[in-house]
Queue: 3 jobs
Job 1
Amino acid sequence: MKKYFSLFVVFVLTNILHAQVGINTSTPKSTLDINGNLKIRTLPVVSAYPASDQVILILDKNATTGDFEVKQISADILFGGHAYYASKTGSWSLLNLAIGDSWYKLNLTGTADTKLGDPSRFTDGVYTAPQSGVYSVNYEIQLASGVDIEVLGGKRIGLIKNNTVVWDEKLFDAVRVAINVPLVLTLTLAAIPVNSTSLNSMVHLNAGETLTFALNTSGVLPINLGLLTTAKVNINIHKISNQTQ
């Protein structure tokens, strides 16, 4: 009799341990279903983010297993922005991009020119995305004062996605003030030199896709190309969203 009683106790305890438990509900829909408030009096403080063993709890209102279900989200999604910054003053040159239309990529390298971020993500002006998502991009070329804007006429900086598609581009900033005299000629009153040109954009990249920082030199004479390659170049990239295309 004692043997059968022991088996019965084990059977009951096993079912209790594996059953769904409801608090303030007779029809629990998960291992622990609380129909009401939950108060936790003491929580440990996390000193840093992110960490591979840390998650954030969220409330899923569309859960099919209950009215409101608590789920976890990796801290990497919120705190893994993957920022990158590179900069170089002078002594940079242009490398053939082989997509035609006079586009050339910068020869900035991750090893020598990285100021912030993973140097292995940037090689010869080409950034490789570590994760899929939307990236905010800033590309700036600072020129020495006094550069003749005639040299920069029609020249552009651009972002090339996956070495094939011109994602975004911008002409060098320039200002020229002129007055037209009918039937005679156009007189130039002032030519203001360019100090810097920047291109701000956002682009979606899948993990492993690339973004090339390029310069279009169409019509530039070799003697004038040196004016561009002695300028300062700043590049920064920051992942801002996991949004798909």
Note: The CA atoms of residues 135 and 240 lie 6 Å apart.
Job 2
Amino acid sequence: MDQFFNAARPEITIGGKDHFLYLFIIIALLTLLFCYQRQVKIYEKTVMWIVLLLALIQRGLSLAYFISIGEYTLAEALPLHICRLVCLFIILQFFLQKDWLDQIIFFWGLFAYASFVYPVEISPLTHVMGITFVLLHSLNILFPLVRYFTVGFVPSFRGSLLAVVLFAIYLPLVAVFNELTDGNYFYLVERPFFHNMASLPYFLLNFFGVSIAFLMVGLVFDKIGKARDIH
């Protein structure tokens, strides 16, 4: 139990067995969701309650861990990493049921795919932060599919525009917040790549790179939708 809540968090190795275990878990969950999509539709309310419960457990475990080790700080524990915000949006969506919120959840949740492929500072499942990682990023990825199977949610170009606008607000705010608190939200300080790049070019690379990616994904979904309408 001491190891499970250890403040000195172990980290998995990219390409190691723990990394492949995480990839297997998300692939297995995606497969199960597709196999049981009919049941997801039939038991929509129950599924949404399960999603809400898992999201609350994820945020509760993360909060409890940081408090227990005395590291609940502005720089570390706030839900300002983008996937943590998506988890909060998922909780909010249980009550609001709005398409625009589904759009934000989908586009911002795309970062979760990258986290599984290229995990940075991620603990194994033998640590509580490994459990919270799986819960958090699985919810980010699976929730839009749940909404597709239950209410017919489909990402759109308009949705990507909204995601870009909110990202244009989010990124400068966390950059300033990082400066004030010595934080590392959105990994703008301790970076996964381009370690030697100056701060401003790195900020702009993230902003324009992410924005273009959102817009391209939105265009792809719009074209798919139009092609289906034609046929």
Note: The CA atoms of residues 40 and 46 lie 9 Å apart.
Job 3
Amino acid sequence: MIGKEEEERFRAFINQQLAESGEYDSLKQHLQQRLTETGWVDRVQKRAKDIIRNKGIENVTVGQLMNETKGSALADVPPEILTDIVSRLQEFMKQRVSDD
């Protein structure tokens, strides 16, 4: 089992590799497209609008809105999208390791 410090270094390394290669932007764009296609974005926006309607716009901060929608939004991400993104990350890392 790796320690917290090693895990943080590994995450930083992966993030650096993703950013330097341009893969981060590609994955981000792909994720946004897939979330839009599946209606996830519309569902999250509807939840946010419902909260604003119920509490009144003057009674809700952006932070409160984020806190109230975060859990359900994360739980609502379709499993196939998560699987797809993880698979793309794994493939990216395999390619980076084999290139060295």
Note: The two ends are 25 Å apart (CA to CA).
